[in-house]
Amino acid sequence: MSDTSPEESRAFAQSPAAAESPASAGSSDFDAMTRDIAEVPAVEVIVTVAVNLMSAAAVKLGLTEEGDTYKDLDEARKLVHALAGLLDASATEISSFHAAPLRDGLKSLQLAFREASIVPDEPGQGPGEKYTGPVYG
After folding, report:
1. How far is CA 99 from CA 50, 87, 135, in A?
2. pLDDT tens digits, residue range 101-115?
3. Residue 48: which of 14, 90, 20 has the closest Cα?
4. 23 pLDDT higher than 90
């Protein structure tokens, strides 16, 4: 038998906390995330995505402490190419203050890719070079 009275049971069942289902809880979390994202300037979102792409590419190129553990040049090529495309597309949207270090990082990744490749791509054919032009060491 329950230790609650019928009145307490009805009050609990009608309370907002009790009425909130997992789906509505997820919806409120999504609303909060939407409000948070709405407050972030576009430049910050672009830079954050670029830094994430750079970090992932560095891991796939074997440039982290783990070295070759996660090295995968096919995956690295895709990430570097995506980074180059993002930077090319957003060049007029972000200031040179933000763009310059990102371009430097991209060039470093492109050079690291060229060094890591057993059969290097021809100049202009490496990852992202469609957007940046040929990268020479």
Report:
1. 10, 7, 17
2. 999 999 999 999 999
3. 90
4. no
